[in-house]
């Protein structure tokens, strides 16, 4: 059951003693079946109300809140909006009210224009990836072994390959990546699992809040970096990654960035596999367009490599005359 902002304001008033809603403000949410609104009280207090529109959304919300509550006992506490109250819903389940995230949603354009913000995000990612194992276990998140993760990647690639949607160069590249054993020597770590512009907030060129922990798990740290390495200019990602490495207490895997790049590419295969599974031609066409772009990039790299090899050969020949 979906609710408008006025209904959400009434739920917030019921969940938080003393809150008298004065106005509402929209807050972006990545889930279509989760109603979210910002509420400003008469005293200026700002809260966020989250109401699931389906049973599945209710399960995700409970998972999100359980993980977030656990993380308030870690170094991430300053970016986790605390829960203020709950109220039962007539159709079952419950609505939650938290403090409103400080700042505004973090856009990729914000990162592109601010090395300081990129560094802040790198630091927060490092803190996510160093959440202690006992905290992850307390949050009840699922743990994936390196073998299980690699098998899942291989299954997706096999699905789209069998469907005949991969150009030869892309197929060869992805198979070579899957066969590179050193690349997949992963030490599972706690990860957010679904970073996006909707889950991050910024204020004063700092990451001010992180939300939506429903996809968090103990898995590959590269999965949180894949979205960023695929979206940011190389120099901005390098700044983010430098801050990330500096914040970590131990060295990263020497090929972590390379693995993040691979996962960014594999995400296209996952998108295509999803489109094929649900029979959505628009998704299939979108994914095939991204694969065509990758194929063109690989062709350009091959041409550049051939030109370099030719120039080196000419230089050697000229030097021997």
Notable characteristics:
321 residues; alpha+beta; Phosphorylase Kinase, domain 1; Aminoglycoside 3'-phosphotransferase, Chain: A, domain 2; 2 domains; five-stranded antiparallel beta sheet; 11 helices
How would you explain this protein's 3D organization?
The chain is α+β, with helices and mostly antiparallel strands and 321 residues long. It has helices at 5-15, 55-71, 108-112, 115-129, 133-139, 146-162, 168-179, 222-231, 234-247, 256-278, 281-320; strands at residues 21-26, 34-41, 46-52, 83-88, 94-99, 104-105, 189-191, 200-203, 206-210, 217-219. It has two domains: 5-100, Phosphorylase Kinase, domain 1; 105-306, Aminoglycoside phosphotransferase (APH), C-terminal lobe (Aminoglycoside 3'-phosphotransferase, Chain: A, domain 2, Alpha-Beta Complex). The strands form three sheets. It has a five-stranded antiparallel beta sheet with strand order 1-2-3-5-4. A three-stranded antiparallel beta sheet has the order 6-8-9, with helices on one face. Helix 2 packs antiparallel against helix 5 (133-139). The longest helix has 40 residues, at 281-320. The radius of gyration is 23 Å and the shape is elongated. The termini are far apart. The mean pLDDT is 91.
